[in-house]
Amino acid sequence: MVDIPRNSINAGAIYADDTTMGLYGVTPVVQPASANQAAVSTSPLPGAAGDPPTQAEFDAVVTRFNSLLVLVDALRTAGVNLGTIKGSA
């Protein structure tokens, strides 16, 4: 862990204070908090191996996939806002 002095700028790459942080010159932001960051279930999906899926099983897979898309989007947004990823070149 690196202790960054409050209200410090390290060659423009890091900014942090009591409530915000920014990297690589982005505007400092507060720590994101959203229901979109909730953990996605890792429990086994229903269905027997080799059997064609029922509609309910298919719907469960679609729901899980959509939950993953929401989580990935939330992580991407947080990363771009913090400055840990560029987002697009």
Which secondary structure elements does this structure contain, and how are they paired or packed?
Blueprint: E1 8-9, E2 14-16, E3 21-23, H1 55-82
Antiparallel strand pairs: 1-2, 2-3
Characterization of this structure:
The chain has 2 domains: 1-31, no CATH class; 33-89. A hairpin with a 4-residue loop joins strand 1 and strand 2 (14-16). The protein is α+β, with helices and mostly antiparallel strands and 89 residues long. Helices cover 31% and strands 9% of the residues. The protein contains 1 helix and 3 strands. The protein has one helix spanning 55-82, and strands at residues 8-9, 14-16, 21-23.
Structural features:
89 residues; alpha+beta; 3-stranded antiparallel β-sheet; 1 helix; 31% helix; elongated
A few lines on this structure:
This protein is an alpha+beta fold.
